[in-house]
Write a structure and sequence with these properties.
This protein is α/β, with parallel strands linked by helices. 34% of the residues lie in helices and 12% in strands. The two termini are 28 Å apart.
């Protein structure tokens, strides 16, 4: 899908912290691309071309997406600051993981946290103020022992939040899967 200026508008923005979740982000990106087409998912390391202004590209993509998928691993919350290793990365307002999530929350964009392996459930008190809404967002779990079913749950959550993607996806109808609940976007 493109906006009025012809820029690609990905339905899904995949947010992840380098060093804590790239493999999960890649798997989810591949499945989203397979189901909905590669232009419907934005993952920085795949979607930003050489020579592009990554700051402007990231900002535009997160502002135009329909849903942000936040990949959260066991080290996500307390990952050290990348530049000096002192303090938590999340405490830096310029940390990309924080900026992307805070922007989505401030815009009212739905955010689906995907907690992988043994990542603990988030608590508002552990997050910077502009990200506290993330702790109230219903999450999905992702574990290496249940990749197929967990991927399916993430995709179904995306289809509920972004119904047009459900119309694009080629999924066989399944009987008796229960009803879908329509989520309220998390906000700060």
């Amino acid at each position: 899908m493109t906006d009025r200026k012809g820029f690609s508008m990905p339905g899904c923005f995949i947010n992840y912290r380098t060093g804590d979740g790239e493999h999960v982000a890649t798997l989810i990106d591949r499945e989203l691309g397979r189901r909905f087409g590669p232009d419907e998912a934005f993952r920085a390391s795949r979607s930003i071309e050489a020579g592009q202004d990554y700051v402007r590209t990231l900002d535009a993509a997160v502002r135009r997406c329909d849903v942000l998928i936040a990949i959260i691993g066991p080290a996500w919350l307390d990952s050290p600051h990348r530049s000096d290793g002192v303090g938590r990365a999340l405490d830096d307002p310029d940390d990309w993981t924080r900026r992307e999530i805070a922007t989505a929350l401030s815009l009212g964009t739905p955010v689906i946290p995907v907690l992988f392996d043994d990542a603990p459930r988030l608590r508002e008190a552990d997050l910077p103020e502009d990200m506290r809404g993330l702790a109230r967002c219903q999450y999905r779990r992702f574990h290496h022992r249940s990749v197929d079913s967990d991927l399916e749950e993430v995709i179904e959550a995306v289809e509920v939040v972004v119904p047009r993607l459900g119309e694009i996806g080629e999924r066989p109808a399944e009987e008796g899967t229960g009803s879908r609940r329509w989520p309220t976007p998390c906000a700060t």
